Amino acid sequence: MDVNVLNGFLKDEHDLEGWFFPQDMLSLAIFNELHSKNNIKGHIVEIGVYKGKSFSFLSHFIKDTENLYGYDTFPEDFYESTNLALENYGANVQYELIKADTSELNNDDIKAKIDGKGIRILHIDAGHEYHEVFHSLLSFSPYVINNGIIVVDDYQDPEFPGIEAAVLDFCEIDRPRRFVPFFSGANKIYLCVTHMAKLFHEGILSNVNIKNCSRLTVVRDFAIIKGFSKVPTSFETINQQLNQFYELGKNDSKYNNQRLSELQNKAKKYSKMCSNNYEEMTLK
Ligand SMILES: C[S@@+](CC[C@H](N)C(=O)[O-])C[C@H]1O[C@@H](n2cnc3c(N)ncnc32)[C@H](O)[C@@H]1O
Questions:
Q1: What distance in angstroms lies between residue 200's CA and the mean position of ligand 1's atoms?
Q2: Which atom of ligand 1 lies at the shortest distance from residue 52's CA?
Q3: Is residue 240 a part of any domain in this protein?
Q4: Is the pTM of this model over 0.90?
Q5: Hey, is 280 helix, strand or coil?
Q6: Is residue 228 part of a domain?
Q7: Measured between alpha carbons, how far apart are the two ends of the chain, in Å?
Q8: Residue 165 belongs to what domain range?
Q9: CATH no. for residue 104?
């Protein structure tokens, strides 16, 4: 993504309405850059376009033969506003707006739209209730490529407790796991396929804007880097914890164990690793 375009969005130099904010713009731009560096290609799909703020931002990630798809019911003037947003602030790329209630789509509808290339970024920002998010995850995730990421909006917003529940339930479905949360932005959670988490962790920590304002947290059997943390730890600490996490977890089964004794052993093993170091923490 062109750095001037990114800066324009980060500084809010536009008149776009929406719920898409600088910290997640930056995080998405970093993951897009990682995809480019690793020659990872695929489509970008947004579920919940509203008036095109995040959609026009995402258009700047599109390369070569990739397509950008936006699903929304597009009531009122949303459709026209989105086209205008693209015209004024988007990149000159292929895009398609699909007027649909995504809760009524089945896998065949989605498959027919997304050709064999698959999805490399899936942004879920439509209905914010448990079953809506769960349905979006279930119906679109089969088309996300193994190097792709899924981004879900308003994770852990107390207004929408169903979002976190849907994401965590979704991550329990495949055994061994397919997707795990690996990064937490300002108000979005980022998921990737288990074996890609290490690459994305290293990638995001190599960014100067992230490396000194983050911390590591281990949830169930996955490690999440909390970017823009209120209580960041040093880059050295996170790096050491990550190495320890990958070493400790080598023999763990890749799903949440159900037996109490196994859960107790795991809790003991990981509780020391990321326990909060109040001496090092500076409250922001
Ligand atoms: C929070 S807004 C999206 C914000 C946008 N991504 C942004 O950052 O500016 C949610 C959008 O989801 C759409 N939506 C809600 N439920 C939907 C459904 N079942 N199918 C399709 N779109 C839906 C709404 O019409 C609305 O435009």
A1: 27
A2: 9
A3: no
A4: yes
A5: coil
A6: no
A7: 30
A8: 3-211
A9: 3.40.50.150
